[in-house]
Amino acid sequence: MKLWKGRFSKAATSSADEFNASIEFDQRLYKDDIKGSMAHAAMLGKQGIIAADEAELIIKTLKEIEADIEAGKVEFTIESEDIHMNIESVLTERIGDAGKRLHTARSRNDQVAVDIRLYLKEEIAAIHQLLAKLMETLVDLAEQHQDTVMPGYTHLQRAQPVTLAYHLLAYYQMFKRDASRFADCLDRMDYLPLGCGALAGTTYDTDREFLAKELGFKGICPNAMDAVADRDFAVEFISCCSITMMHLSRFCEELIQWSSVEFSFVEIDDAYSTGSSIMPQKKNPDMAELIRGKTGRVYGDLMSLLTIIKGLPLAYNKDLQEDKLPVFDAGDTLKASVNIFTEMIATMKVKTENMERAAKYGYMNATDAADYLVTKGIPFRDCHEIIGKIVLHCINKGIAIEEMSIEEFKSFSDKFEEDIYDKIAIRSCIKAKKSKGSTSFDSVKQQLADIKSGK
Ligand code: ARG
Question: Is the C-alpha dihedral spanning 307, 313, 318, 320 positive or negative?
Answer without folding.
Answer: positive
